[in-house]
Amino acid sequence: MEFFYSYFINYFYLLCIVIVLTIICIQKLHEHKRLSISVFTIMGCTVLLSLSDSLKIYFQETLKTGIFWITFFACLSYVVRPACLLLFILLSENRRKSKWFYVLLVPMAICVIIYILPLIPGCEDLVFSYHYNELGGISWKGADNPLRFTSHIVAAIYLGYLVYRSIATLQAKHFSHSLSILFCAAIIVVAVVIETFFNEKGNINLLTTTIAICVVFYYLFLYAEHMQYSVLTGLLNRTAYFADIRKMGKEVTGVIQVDMNGLKYWNDTFGHLEGDLALKTISDILRRSCTRRMYAYRLGGDEFTILAVKESEEALIETIHRIKDGLAKSKYRCSIGSSYRRDNETTFGALVKEAEKRMYEDKSEFYKNSKIERRRTLNPTDN
Known about the structure:
This protein has 383 residues and is of the alpha+beta class. It has two domains: 8-226, Rhopdopsin 7-helix transmembrane proteins (Up-down Bundle), CATH 1.20.1070; 238-370, Reverse transcriptase/Diguanylate cyclase domain (Alpha-Beta Plaits, 2-Layer Sandwich). It is built from 13 helices and six strands. The strands form two sheets. The protein has a four-stranded antiparallel sheet with strand order 4-5-3-6, sandwiched between helices. A hairpin with a 5-residue loop joins strand 1 and strand 2 (138-141). The protein is elongated, with a radius of gyration of 28 Å.
């Protein structure tokens, strides 16, 4: 009973964070399955780390028996610490693993192997070991053994990767995302430094709660970011469009307007589910066609816009070609218009007007050549 009371007092904030975040993730499980599972896993690891730290101290100071269990929980703590950071990297990969994630599994595997050694009879002194001293207490040896610092080295590698990846993607399109990861990495570094260099008595345990706080912060950031996207298509929505205009309208060098031809046909003939599929297919084509400096938006209905920020005219033309090639491979048709800023006197509004004008000209040409009345429910793919 004394152990649970002490554990509850020491990790009250952590437990509150874990409980609240778990409830939120359960509610969002069907909507964001992969994200919720990642959060569940990292929260479980933080609780496991807090338990292993507490149980090691409990066995060491209260029972003073069972060298194996003291060693076991010490080794478990050394393994779970970098594992929490690895899981946070997975969480921050924005719903997908990069190729480097699998490379980062190698240090974790080495860490596990090294901290299994103290549990194997005859290998205790290879890393560190606990033993009874002459006063009847428990002491340990291995403070100067380089292998003991494997956990710290692996944690440093993971933190370095977080910082590097954030800085490498610190550009207009990913600025806020990279900045949020940098912030999390910074406060985790502070927690690791305090635990490593200012923890002579071994009673400072900041990393678990710090990681949990970072997960909460990052989860809230992803949730706020998700509100900027169209639920159906996954493209940025109208709200994000106007926000980005205010933020970087002067840096927009090109505009592409895209409007689907014959959405009414698909909705009236096959139902709105088929119409939704058409919109999602077109959105995927636009997303794949964009460069890193281009932003694709669904403004509503069958209207789409792509903003090119500090991008060349050649890149704009190539993007339009990729869009047309993608549409040609599908059963859907779109009208496309574009404009490019060639001088500083051209306003953003003028760019949009020019792109819209060309898009409507393309739409009129399409219906003229196909001999289809725009308001009739006919197949727009027929010519």
